[in-house]
Amino acid sequence: MIVPTAVVSDVTKSYGSRKALQPTSLRLESGVVGLLGPNGAGKSTLVRLLASAMPPTSGQIVVDGHDVTGSIAERTAARRVIGYLPQEVSFPRGMTAFAFVDYIAVLKEWTDGTVRHREVDRVLDLVGLGDRRTWPIRRLSGGQRRRLALAQALVGDPRLIVLDEPTTGLDPEQRASLRDVLSGLAQRGTVFLATHQTEDVAALCDRLILLVDGRVLFDGPVSGFIATAEGHVWVGGSAAPDSHASWRTGTGSIRSVGGRPGPDAAPVPATVEDAYLLMTGLSRTPREGASR
Amino acid sequence: MSTTTWHVSPGLLERYADGALDSAASASVETHLTSCSACRENVARLASPTDVAALWSGVRAEIAVPRHPWLVRQLRRVGLPDADAVVLSASQSLRLPWALSVMIAFVSMVVLAALSDRRADLIYLAVAPLLPAIGVAASYDSTDPIREIVETTPVSKLRLLLLRTLVVVTCSVPPVLLLGLVVSDLSAVAFAWLLPSFALTLVALVLLKWWPAWVTSAGVVSVWALAVLLVGGRGAVGRLADVPLQVACAMVALGAVAVLVARFASWESSGGRP
Fold first, then answer.
1. CA distances from A262 to A249, A259, A282, B125 (A)
2. pLDDT, tens only, B44-80
3. Interface membership of A55 toward B (CB under 8 Å)
4. Cβ B64–A86 below 8 Å, yes or no?
5. Are B271 and A75 within 8 A, CB to CB?
6. Distance between the two ends of chain A, CA-based, in angstroms?
7. How would you class B180 by CB atoms within 10 Å of its CB: exposed for 0-12, middle for 13-18, buried for 19 or more?
């Protein structure tokens, strides 16, 4: 029997009278899980709940067998196996890359200096910042800072790594390198990845969750997600009538997602982005395509 | 390129590589190695890859590990654990209370020296208790730029709070106390501010749950300024050191401790922030 890394049971979150997350249940196992959704869909809320950065309004979250919503001992035990990268990280002033990760390692209970320093070196090497360890953070580029923020999440090889927009600010080469790191980590635990980058999901994730208006609209394999858009994507000389999205491609033709095909339209294989546009479009304006 | 005509014997070189030589013999071999490339190559072959890796790792760590600030180095000397030293070094806000205390103590000394005795008492008692409280507010974790990351780590948040508070109080109290003891005519009230300061610091910790650091600081400054004016402003400065006021401060401090304890107990059962 596969032991889940995390189990989310009927979890909700409200900010005052606004309900950011409707009752949600998830079971996370090894692999990379992608979380997609438009701005304000509740992605960061779900990410923060899973990382134990805030308590849910109701429901239960269990990480590695420990109830995050239970006693402080249980929550602390859960936090020992969680690595978290928030969407935005403001670094303390005057610190070097090494000192920053060293500080977080101490907070993760790595008290033995020698062992801790080895671990700090390991994660800095892992994100490609080994040769920048003594640099002050203010001298690092935006992409390097993002990788530094990621490095602290990897300290201790946590079973559940929760990342909010990890590839923001990274160039294509750095993103490819990061995907390699994350897929390696997913062999031993779960990488939960909230992102706007559909290409990251396509390249990296085994499973995809689509969140819209605080509700899970899709939860399944990426191939299944793409399949929902097969037969609904066309390329032609003009936009398909009633399409949810259409745009001119580099070849000059118009790619349309949803709606009815135009007279000169030819069907093309769907991508994660097509499926995302179709599903979020359907959720906003239900029309004839919604019944398909 | 080798510049010497003699070489270290293989046996001696092997014992050197094994670390079996005494310090004098090692130093002699090392002196020779600095000028003999042939012996350097031989000793490199004798060194085990594990030892070289460990040595290299040590060198890298020595270079990369940043030096703690002066204050934290002093605390390390008196037994502060390494992990706590790292936490305090990372707390940039500690520099503020330290700088604030020294600066205000210095400015106060100049001002007090220029004033008449009675006013000196009053100003001293008005300012001294506030320094630790303001310092604690400035170093509270709401001012921590990576608060969200810190929140999800297993470290005890109560320990972090108390560690920061302890260091702020430790570095802000001595300059003020010293000022009271060295400036003439202040010795009578040199210790009278400690209990009020304790109470104000704890009240600041309670208020920081709801208020930002600057509002909290302004709040405790206003309340204490009012108390000083009402109690000691009519020429009865000594009343600030009287037993009733000191007892009142002790009661306020106990009340604040009770609120903090209850808050942490509630945090334990609810999963929220203290």
1. 16, 9, 19, 84
2. 888 877 777 777 777 776 777 777 777 778 778 888 8
3. yes
4. no
5. yes
6. 36
7. buried
